[in-house]
Amino acid sequence: MKGCLVPVILLIVLLGLIVGGGIYLDKLGVINLKPVLSKIPVVKNKYLSVKGSPEVSFELLKGEELRKFQESIEMKMEELEKKEEGLVGKEKELSNLEKELKGKDEELRQKDIALQERIDAFNDQEANLGKMATLYQSMSPAKSAAILQNLDDQIVIDIFRRMEEGIVSAVLMQMDPQKAAAVSRKMSR
Known about the structure:
By secondary structure, the protein is mainly alpha-helical. The protein has a domain at about 140-189. It is built from eight helices and no strands. It has helices spanning about 1-30, 35, 40-50, 60-140, 140-150, 155-160, 165-175, 175-185. The protein is rod-shaped, with a radius of gyration of 53 Å.
C-alpha cells in the first residue's frame, strides 16, 4: 500500500501545481483560463464569480477601460493644445523681438559707418593740419604770417597748436595786429 500512495500523492501535487500555475498565469494575463474554468462548476462558483455582485464580462471591463483611456487621451490633448497655443504666442513674441533686434542692429551698423566716416575725416584733417604746420614752420615768420593772415581764424589756431611756441610768437609778430589779437583771443579760450 505504501508503494501505491507515493504516485497518487505525486499526481495530486502535480495537478495542484498545474492548476495553481494556470491560475497564476491567468492573473498575470499571460493566458486566459476563464473560458475553460467556467465549465467546471466547483471552480466557476469558487474562483470566477464575486459573491453578491453580478458577473462582469470582459467586454464591459474593456469598454470601461477604453472609456477611461479615451478620457485620459482627451485630457492630454487639451493640455497639448493649451501648450501649443502658448508656444505659438511665444513664437510670435520671439519673431517680433528678432525683427526689433535686426532693426536695432541695422541702426547700430549705420551709426558705426557714420562714426567711422567722421573718424576718417578727423584723421585726414589732423594729418593735413600737421603737414601745414610743418610747412609753415619751415618758412620764414614773415612769409608764414602773410599766408596765415588770409586764412580763417580757427584754421590758423589749429595750425599754431601744432607748431613750436617760439615760431608761433615770431609769426604772430609779423601778422596784422588786429588779426594777431583776434587769433590770440580765440586761442586763450
